[in-house]
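haha ok so turns out i had the wrong file open the whole time. this is the CORRECT one, sorry everyone. sequence first:
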Amino acid sequence: MNIIHFLEKGIISKDAKTTISIAKQLASEIPNDHTLALHGDLGTGKTTFVKGLAHKWGINEEITSPTFNIYTIYKGHRNLIHLDAYRLSNESEVENLFLEEFLLSPYCLVIEWPEKISSLLPRNTWHLYFSIQKDSSHFIKLEISN
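then structure:
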């Protein structure tokens, strides 16, 4: 069984190292030119997960949440566009970001706070849900829609 199967059932992560490891495993399974929507409150591990994707794709830059920049572009074996939609007040603001100019194949567009721009997400977006359990561990679950 591969990581997708386990994530569809949900995986518990006890620490950042485990979250990064899970992301690195998933990075090999994500199709080229794809979108990931990361759902979850602050502190649930979304940016830590993005660090794992970046590491797998040979990106050596420090990965931080792009809350104030709205998005950050990282180049490696695969381009990673990390978008934080939290500060967007409406979906029309996305058009002003000119994101399509940066979607150079192969890429992965990762969106934190995707509910802010839900109608703009591609149909084949993979949705990852992050939460904190009572014992402070983190729970990560993947939903793939077609």
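The CA atoms of residues 115 and 140 lie 17 Å apart.
again sry for the mixup
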